[in-house]
Task: structure prediction
Amino acid sequence: MKKSDLIREIARRKNLSLRRSQMVIDHLFQAMTEALARGEKIEIRGLGTFKIKKKPPRVVKDPRTGTEIFVKERYVPVFKMGKSIKGALNPKKDK
Result:
């Protein structure tokens, strides 16, 4: 599902205009981005948790040339899915 699909689905389900639905989604993503940039954890019950993880500096090899490259410290977003998503993706089978 792309962002445009999500906007259309929200508009359809809540009987909103596409413009209004897009505004809601844009503001949601902006608020989430700003919270992560401040180092805050985002917990959405029923969906999961977003947080930032610090990756230490390291030396890696370029697979084409074999030369070593220094990669600086960086921060990456991490998503941990909630129980409801895990259950939907991996339904329990009765034995």
